[in-house]
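Q: A reviewer asked whether we had any structural model of the full assembly, not just the individual parts. We don't, so I'm hoping you can provide one. Inputs are below.
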Amino acid sequence: MAWHAPLDEMDFVLHRVLKVQDSDIPGYAELDPGFTAAILGEAGKLAEEVLAPLNAVGDRQGCRLENGQVRVPEGFHAAFDALRDGGWTAIDCDPADGGQGLPYVMHTAVNEPFVSANMALNMYMGLTHGAYSALRLHGSPELKAAYLPKLASCEWTGTMNLTEPQCGTDLGLIRTKAEPAPDESWKVTGTKIFISAGDHDLAENIIHLVLARAPGGGEGTKGLSLFLVPKVIDGARNAVSPGKVEAKMGIHGNATCVMNYDGATGWLVGDLHKGMRAMFTMMNEARLGVAMQGFAVAEAAHQAAVAYAKERLQGHGTRSDGLEPLIVHPDIRRILMDHKAFLQGARALTYWGATLIDRAHRMGDKGADGVVSLLIPVLKGFLTDKGFEVAVSAQQVWGGHGYIEDNGMSQHVRDARIAMIYEGANGVQALDLVGRKLGAEGGKPVMAFFEMVKAEVHAHDDRPEMAEFTAPLKAASKQMQAAAMIFVERGLKDPDDALAGSTDFLHLVGHVCLGLMWVRMARAALEMGGDFGAAKLVIARHYMTRVLPACGLHLARIEAGGRTVMGLKAEAF
Amino acid sequence: MAWHAPLDEMDFVLHRVLKVQDSDIPGYAELDPGFTAAILGEAGKLAEEVLAPLNAVGDRQGCRLENGQVRVPEGFHAAFDALRDGGWTAIDCDPADGGQGLPYVMHTAVNEPFVSANMALNMYMGLTHGAYSALRLHGSPELKAAYLPKLASCEWTGTMNLTEPQCGTDLGLIRTKAEPAPDESWKVTGTKIFISAGDHDLAENIIHLVLARAPGGGEGTKGLSLFLVPKVIDGARNAVSPGKVEAKMGIHGNATCVMNYDGATGWLVGDLHKGMRAMFTMMNEARLGVAMQGFAVAEAAHQAAVAYAKERLQGHGTRSDGLEPLIVHPDIRRILMDHKAFLQGARALTYWGATLIDRAHRMGDKGADGVVSLLIPVLKGFLTDKGFEVAVSAQQVWGGHGYIEDNGMSQHVRDARIAMIYEGANGVQALDLVGRKLGAEGGKPVMAFFEMVKAEVHAHDDRPEMAEFTAPLKAASKQMQAAAMIFVERGLKDPDDALAGSTDFLHLVGHVCLGLMWVRMARAALEMGGDFGAAKLVIARHYMTRVLPACGLHLARIEAGGRTVMGLKAEAF
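A: Here is a predicted structure for the entire assembly that you could use as a starting point for your response.
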């Protein structure tokens, strides 16, 4: 695998684009370039040397269920130990729990190379981090004391149990039950499916967070409560077990399990019948993590495509042997430039999103919280849709060799595919954006976003060299505003007419977000100069002239509305 | 698998849109609706009952090499016998060879359900058909007599041997050698890779057509000759053997082999050093076959998505149980309508292409030959790119269940992927379109195509109800003309600048082609009326308002040219 952690790019985003070192967010002052370079350099090294070589191994071997215990692929144990030993599991965890207390943006940056190198392995850590966050926000002091340090260090790992055979998106149909026991514990009974890292032999204990129905909560999602159910209690197995390891298209190295709860002992997390709230307070972080998977796996695929395009020789060339590498061809260049325009924009957007989360959490900034909540479905949906496209076109560069499993390109495509589906399928993200986020707080967050774009456009009014970047962003932003008006106007009259354009709107906003990032990157590149800066300007120009014009097409589709989309009876399908 | 052969749709295209029964092409007169319905009904039945149930089996089991012999999945033998026994292998073969002598359009229509049901199995037959066509056009009378009947019946199967480890697209790098033997046979030595159906146990003999380098031919593609190399000669194994069965992303049921030729006995097909010509005369048919794979696999995926969208229930509904199927959601409808707009247009375009091939072959119509040669890279590239997108979005409808291998959606995606790669990767199709076909015969074919579009637009001038379909086609056609002018003008000055837009041009032309088909289908739907006709008009409207506007985006990208695409040095990637 030719992949290397793109440390220069990560540094550029952190220190030239976002200028984290100059931020007023508490904890950011220490993020000087030397400090972050040291951390990210070590993370990149670990990813390259330890995690990446296991990526294909994990894909080939997958996980297997043996006598009620799931076994992970060879080598995963040592690699997971390396993640624990280096403190990589607890970058942003509370020092009281053994964490390093760094900002969330550093957790995000550190995890990018880990995901690029081995998404399936990284998930064991990522889900544990999610469980840690939920428990930290909603757990009782006793639960927190007992579990947070173990989760922060990944000595024990965590899971999220939402989906059941009869319900995915619609959690109101959950049937898993919880009955109170005399000692303030609960007995949890039911079947959960698609549980990532549901069982494995990487840790002595696994802490399951389970949405279930306790008595008296009524129907639908309002009746749900969240329970903490350990695999092992005081050295004895709890009544929870993996029923099956699913055979999936990709991420074979992560054990996706059917989990059976047979009166398993658990404890309530947060308030009774308020399980949805407890589960969803950490949703922004979880979805930002999936957004990163979208581009991080694509980054690995892109680098492999570049390597192949440089190495693979064919005829008609001007070299002395008459050969030339694939990369001389304009159509190959087009693919690789489209990749760079997306990947670098996606990195900036994701890291920026992480700084907004830091601003919201560390400063209580409600404006930042509103904007990040608005944009999270866009990050999740747009970056995973486009990341998958990058993986597919990177595979295409390899020609027939890309279709052969041994060469690794197929795995990138198969792994990238899941990010469009889990943590809320992308169609649900579009619905969330249009149906909930767009109108939230009377439209305050979306207005704030438009103001941000406007401010960025006008910040460079005195620099004519920025006009080629700001003008297209301004035009795209106007198209987004026109689309937003359509949703406001039609949404009231005929929701289906508006919702027919929800995915197009998600993509339109995604393009505007990347356009905003590319203006910021162009500004930073001009300041920076040199070969690096000059290359950035070419890629910025590529985004503005060849990618951002997609906004017009998305607007046209939104304008077309639901007339044809809803024009057939269900029986006519 | 919920798939059914879409006989109504196939009949609509053949008899309402293309009106094959009224055509002046020799052999078409007998294609009355009753006759074609009888044939296609039987083909559909065989596909549904025999081929489709083996699709998942083939994917799971794959092919394996045992003691120098490749074994295909269980059940493939009986299914292949059923294809032979029904005469399905020789629909359009010469009656002198035991074929039925029907037009190529019937071969095409018959194969659509076979491909939808089981692409991997169908390939054994499809490659044999290719070998039959090459041999029929270029073989000596002796070779033809010895092999054509066996290939027509698929008693023996065929292969195409082009690719080698060091060369895919660039066949000029082929190293496989042929040395003359005293008895007019040749000794072929070399290694070929990615040979579909290279070895298997479905037939007693396999007839390999091999591009190799005979003495005196010089370097590059001009030195290549085509040889027929049987697996078995007079009951004895020839010196050709499978070295490996590749582990691929998909089409596991078809044995993709490394083939080793160790002085294998073969015979020259066609003229010495004219192997490329012999191989490429049948390229239009081969690429049209892959174009069909693009939409036929997508059709199966779409039908599975429709079935799931109708069956899968969730909450918030108005039914008595409070549930409702997924298909009520506008974003699900959007996906399914996009599918229909593509699939039905693709079917019409492919069948129309087949009639153009019939017109060229059966009437010696050079105009038809020019147009089909122009459009073949578009059919191959556009229909396989879009077909893959359909398979991916069909998988998306299934949510998490689409990612589980048991449910079949992953296989559709993995199978569909190869059609973008083999038989000339889609980037090579775009290069063929822009670099060769666009300027062929001084632009005569492309002018003829524009005339066809213009004629279709104006044929309905007196029917105001057609204006909503003809106006967008006219606009898109103008965009295509503008793009074509850019290639003509810039191509001379700076080829790379033009070629940066080649794939966008391929897609632009693809959309214009489907727009043309949708105008023809709208006309037929108006004539037909009823529920079927009414539904068609909705889908036609969907295409015109929500899909065809993509032409503007492709034109914008073409106009942007190669400035950014070629703007970085190779070292900067």
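A: Points you may want to mention in the reply: Chain A touches chain B through 91 residues (CB under 8 Å). The first strand of chain A starts at residue 64 and ends at 66.
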